[in-house]
Amino acid sequence: MLLTIEGREVLNTYRTMTRRYVWNPDGSVCDTVYAGSDDCIVRDIISEMRSEGYCIDAYWVGSMNGLSMVMNGLADIAGIHLVDPMSGEYNVSYMDSLGAWDNAVLMRGYLRLLGIVHRPYLSIGDLTDILGLRMVNRNPGSGTRLATELLLSGIARHTGYDVEELRRTIKGYNDVVKTHVEVTEKVARGLADYGVAITGQALAMGLSVKPIALEEFDIIISKTSIDKPTVKEFIRRINKVNLRPGYVILRNTGELYSR
Prior knowledge:
Layout: H1 5-18, E1 32-36, H2 40-51, E2 56-59, H3 63-71, E3 77-80, H4 92-98, E4 104-118, E5 135-138, H5 143-159, H6 163-169, E6 176-177, H7 180-188, E7 194-198, H8 199-204, E8 208-222, H9 229-239, E9 247-249, E10 256-257
Parallel strand pairs: 1-2, 1-3, 5-6, 5-7
Antiparallel strand pairs: 3-8, 4-7, 4-8, 4-9, 4-10
């Protein structure tokens, strides 16, 4: 039996974790692991916590892989933004279909503006304007890759292209990176004309954005980890997060849900 690309990604991450001796000065291994989607707020919280002495690893493996790692005991926390193409619902339907409620709880996060990010001199009006430009893509298993595929399906319906044909003709479709930071860096350096990324990261790099979705970004927490001091501190900081460009803080941000 052959592993899928996503399965190999999880296996490689696990192998890295089993031999990791991270930034801690004493060489000890962190007892808390974040895995999942790349996010500006999460990055800042982890950076702040590390500067204050908390030991927390971060693996930017995408939403689906992060959820899988929490379910299989390989991570304590996962950030996810997975949209159900049929219902338009985020995250909960995946928790239901994968049976994740047995092992995890969901903490309501916030909304993030996702868009086509590009250098300011490019004018992207109709979405078909991206055809012929060079793309930088995200990794399979990430919520952003799922959003990108839905975007391409919409363009295919509008233009009459077959989706597979569209994938073959798009320059850079197979140029894959793992984070929003990498997407925006490639676009800013002129190595790609556009990519799909969160607005907050794009604005920080001086890029322009054509919005495509206001997505729900939630935090999944392993039930066995919820009382860890580092996890409890992470939860507390999500509850106290401040508004920033490209984000919408919700009335129920920070609330925990289980079944």
